[in-house]
Design goal:
Elements: H1 2-17, E1 21-27, E2 33-38, H2 41-50, H3 55-58, E3 64-72, H4 74-86, H5 89-97, H6 130-141, H7 154-159
Antiparallel strand pairs: 1-2, 1-3
Length: about 160
């Protein structure tokens, strides 16, 4: 009997996951844009209008939905959202007007070659500010050098005189 109940819950949950996700762009009262994703556009717009969706739009109501596009699953929607959020306002306006080509985000790092993308990016020490490179070199020679003293550490207790 319980096994049947568990199956029903699982299948109901599975149906929700398969729903289509959308990217949307709202224009706030101050003229700024808010970009987000959802699997139910009307519900999400109502949440924004009621001030229950986002801190950003809560203080900039009323909002107006200017653009939406279906992205498929949640992962693709998140990738597309990150892509669009990086764009300058002019490019977002062109997308809203239909002038900007709707291109799906592709993994640029080695995806065309069939390589798995790396999670880390190399940092050149020449690009770091001087203070950061000094801290890095100091930590190689002496791990304690360059770090602020911590309360109750043995280093601090040695400097105290006993009365």
């Amino acid at each position: 009997m319980l096994a049947g109940l568990k199956k029903e819950k699982f299948s109901a949950r599975r149906k929700k996951i398969g729903s289509d996700w959308s990217l949307y762009i709202l224009q706030c009262r101050d003229g700024s844009f808010y970009t987000g994703i959802t699997n139910h556009l009307q519900r999400r717009l109502k949440m924004h209008q009621d001030g229950k969706a986002s801190r950003y739009t809560r203080t900039r109501r009323p909002v107006e939905m200017l653009y939406s596009e279906t992205c498929g699953d949640r992962s693709r929607a998140l990738i597309r959202e990150c892509e669009v959020k990086e764009w300058p306002k002019k490019k977002k306006e062109a997308l809203i007007r239909g002038e900007e080509k709707i291109s799906r985000a592709k993994n640029v790092r080695g995806a065309a070659k069939g390589k798995k993308p790396s999670r880390r990016t190399a940092v050149n020490s020449a690009d770091l500010p001087a203070s950061a490179s000094r801290r890095r070199s100091a930590s190689k020679d002496n791990p304690e050098q360059g770090l602020p003293p911590q309360a109750g550490s043995s280093r601090n207790s040695e400097n105290r005189s006993v009365a």
